[in-house]
Design goal:
12 strands, 332 residues, binds magnesium ion, binds adenosine-5'-triphosphate, 8-stranded mixed sheet, 13 helices, 4-stranded antiparallel sheet
């Protein structure tokens, strides 16, 4: 097994009061060396939960109820807390969705990066500072020496995002997990940050798990993509095959929701994710799906290969019908 990361049949629940939210169910994925896997899906589909579970960062009420997670062949779920700490710093970098939790407001940018460098590498204080300037340069901050002496609040949102990336890269991770790396930025800044991420991935040959609700971002950066809905991966395949032959009504609905041609409006799929405390027997998307039959609603859905391609999987009984009659933007 050459995969950098492989997740098999992972399920995660959050305990709330006397019920449990089944936030991630039966998720399998793999990421190969140098590869970028995108995960897309609407709000509440379980994307961040999946990322947190991989690094065992789930809070007190979150628990992995089944499945396995392997990093370079070793089981993350069996690591001791010391081994886990080592892995989180040296091997896998996680950039959380909320940028405020990624930066320490009371330390300068330079101190934060140098601290990361020094915990992970055996270097002197001045060598660490040198490396700090280098990574700040790497993420295209205008003036590394000045920026290093600044506090996070003295930087713009886009500059903060660059610093967060610099921190993630400072330990030269083999796997980078980015959770909505461009939220809260204006469109132009988003584009420059994405180009930067694209370049860094290329240059550092890092494997990436890229989480976003933005299919345009996935299209630009990911080699493969998993489309998540209500905790499950509905479709997975190369970005090219999923975008050109979406074989799941949910994927089709997401693609149709994007602005088309001159029409700049978003056309969201009607309805919303159901109650994750009560998962239906049948397909989780059935109640919003225009192709759903009684069988879809009542009986479990398996993942099946699309057109015999073992790398393109869909969780839909009616994928052939969907493929022939794709949902169009004007039908939503
Ligand atoms: P977004 O696009 O809004 O970031 P997401 O796909 O990242 O959404 P998650 O944050 O993983 O979604 O949430 C998945 C589900 O789990 C949601 O229903 C959410 O309300 C629930 N959830 C997340 N964290 C907790 C928690 N700590 N306790 C209880 N429920 C939680
Ligand atoms: Mg999230």
């Amino acid at each position: 097994d050459q995969s950098v990361l492989s997740v098999t049949d992972l399920s995660v629940e959050y305990l709330t009061g006397d019920s449990s939210v089944k936030a991630v169910r039966d998720v399998s994925l793999h990421i190969e060396p140098g590869e970028t896997l995108g995960i897309a899906g609407e709000s509440g589909s379980g994307k961040s939960t999946l990322a947190l579970a991989i690094l065992r960062y789930l809070g007190d009420n979150g628990q992995i109820t089944s499945g396995s997670i392997n990093y370079e062949g070793q089981s993350i779920l069996e690591l001791s807390s010391a081994e886990l700490k080592e892995l989180r710093g040296n091997e896998i970098a996680h950039v959380p969705q909320d940028p405020n939790t990624a930066l320490n407001p009371s330390m300068t940018v330079g101190e934060q990066i140098a601290e990361v460098v020094r915990t992970h590498r055996d270097v002197t204080r001045s060598e660490a500072m040198e490396q700090t300037y280098e990574v700040l340069q790497e993420v295209n901050l205008p003036d590394p020496e000045t920026n290093a002496s600044q506090y996070p609040h003295e930087l713009s949102g886009g500059q903060q995002q660059r610093v967060i990336l610099a921190i993630a890269l400072a330990c030269q991770p083999r796997l980078l997990i980015l959770d909505e790396p461009t939220t809260g930025l204006d469109v132009t800044t988003q584009a420059t940050i994405l180009d930067l991420i694209d370049e860094l991935i290329e240059e550092w040959d890092t494997s990436v798990l890229l989480i976003t609700h933005n299919l345009g971002v996935i299209n630009q950066i990911s080699d493969r993509v998993g489309i998540m809905y209500a905790g499950e991966i509905m479709e997975m395949g190369t970005t090219e095959s999923v975008f050109s032959s979406p074989a799941n009504p949910y994927t089709q609905g997401l693609l149709a929701s994007l602005p088309q041609g001159d029409d700049r409006r978003l056309k969201p799929i009607p309805g919303q994710i159901g109650d994750l405390r009560r998962i239906p027997n049948g397909c989780v998307f059935a109640e919003r799906c225009e192709f759903a039959t009684d069988e879809c609603r009542d009986t479990p859905v398996e993942k099946v290969p699309v057109n015999d391609d073992p790398e393109h999987l869909t969780r839909c009984k009616r994928w052939e019908h969907a493929l022939e009659n794709p949902i169009q933007a004007d039908s939503q």
